Amino acid sequence: MPTRRATAALIPAAVLALAGPAAAQAIPIRNVVLVHGAWVDGSGWKPVYELLRRRDLNVSMVQEPETSFRADVDAARRVLDMQNGPTILVGHSYGGSIVTEAGVHPKVAGLVYIAAHAPDVGEDEAALGRRMPSVLARTEGAIKRTPDGYTYLDPELFPRLFAPDLPRERAEFVARSQVFAKAEVFSTPLTEAAWKTKPSWGIVAGNDQIINPDLERFYYERAGAPFIVIPGASHSVYESHPVQVAAVIEEAARKALERTR
């Protein structure tokens, strides 16, 4: 069984624009499923979606309810069931925990983690986050909680912590359209770790204030996942740097079937 080695490198921003129609035809995996993180919804994937559709990939977004970890994993599995062949499963942030659990699905050929958590069996992202605290974790009062146990990020702090590299108007809109997440979704231990059996790739957001970039590196290195670092990118890297994100997803679609653990 070959050993996979994680490497950090920068993908040129124009890589997708330079690839021609012949390259698109060479992509063996045509299905991509995108899983958003906590406090946001699938609409943030639109820039990445549009780039992947230009490559003639079949792209679906999961809209998880964020009411429980199990409900969110089930939402991802429903979309995976609908795919017509091998699929690249992509998770951002808390979505990384979802794809780690749901990624054992037989249609999943590879995983991509975008500024994401990737716990092991028995681990949960809240505990792991305490080992390597983020700026968010050190910002008193940033995470709010409703009386019935749902969490959200203070809308006044959201643009600075979650999306400082997005246009201010966009960041403020996302702050005011948050999906409240049940608190226990972050502390539910995983029962599966798909990165142990599925080839994986990763992106570290160099200026991530929500997840410590060092924790992202730890996850990807542990998984043996090749990864890139995007300097200066915020937690909203999938919106602020869609070309680089789409390029990594396309790389996974090209190579997942070639890689074995």
UniProtKB/TrEMBL annotation:
Coiled coil: none annotated. It holds the Pfam family Abhydrolase_6. Residues 1-24 form the signal peptide. Keywords: Hydrolase, Signal. GO terms for molecular function: hydrolase activity. InterPro entries: AB_hydrolase_1, AB_hydrolase_fold, Sec-Metab_Biosynth_Hydrolase. The keyword Transport does not apply. Residues 32-247 form the AB hydrolase-1 domain. The keyword Cell division does not apply. PANTHER family: AB HYDROLASE-1 DOMAIN-CONTAINING PROTEIN-RELATED, ESTERASE_LIPASE_THIOESTERASE DOMAIN-CONTAINING PROTEIN. This is Alpha/beta hydrolase.
